[in-house]
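Tutorial, part two.
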Amino acid sequence: MAKPSTSDTYTLAAPDGLSLDRTGFLELYYFMALNRKLEERLGVLYRQNKVVGGLYSSLGQEACSVGSAYALERDDFLAPMIRNLGSLMVRGVRPLDVMAQYCARAISPTRGKDLNVHFGWVDRGLIAPISVVGALVPVMTGVALEMKMKNKKAVALTYLGDGGMSTTDFHEGMNFAGVLRLPFILIVENNGWAYSTPTRLQANVADLFTRAPGYGAHGEAVDGNNVLEVLDAVRRARRRCLEGGGPVMIEARTFRRKGHAEHDDAGYVPREERAHWEKKDPIDAYRRYLLAHGVVDSETEIQEIDTRIVAILEDAANEALNAPFPDPSIARENVYG
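Running the prediction step on this input gives:
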């Protein structure tokens, strides 16, 4: 993990040996900014009663989703949770798909039958999220088992919150992956809170990644607000998996600056904790990094990316809201039970 800054300003450092061209640096910014601005646009639609159901934000955690997904290769499989919008964007999901899904329109990936990001595209290496916390861990260890049995040079990756580490599915899945030395990567997004329960009240360990050896897995912690550090950690984890090193658990230390869902004001979080993490905003810090290291010559180049994203999202919102709701006649199609 890169050494933390000693200054008052949160400063990113690239891990030693990180290989990334200019296009890659700019794409990381694009996807993080797209993640945030898409959620902001969805927030407006939610307050206009145009979002059906709940809305879940990842404000402050964008580097985890984008950095981890960007580190994967085309044949790898990824299973996002409801807050991993950045992961979806990196894997080719369009903002229109997400907006139509949240607004329950007929053009959405599930044709309006399910909400938020409950969809997957196997041909794109995307496994659909499961609402039950922890349930994706055994599912993705199963995907990793297929990779190993068919001698595919690919890995399976999914996400979990700090609270999800207290679930049975987590334990069973990690143990299974460890025993069979599967090419499985688990990103634990440790934001310090499981809904309103602080991590210290559910786990008597300071470092969650230290649980990994108990399952025969490699564990490490990264600065979850440093997209470059997350990217590097997942790249290394992927190499380790493909070399037969078994599963890897990466604890990404970050903070979600909104409540569990849009209706939750997170009043249980101390103000000073929120203020501390606002100063460590991953996108602001990455903008400073791009300028300080000459990836861009001026703020104008970054603003041009932001302007392009706003236009993309406006077009997507208009198309989604002008799309029809699903025809009731399809309600029983492709439904199991």
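The two ends are 47 Å apart (CA to CA). In part three we will examine how such features are distributed along the chain.
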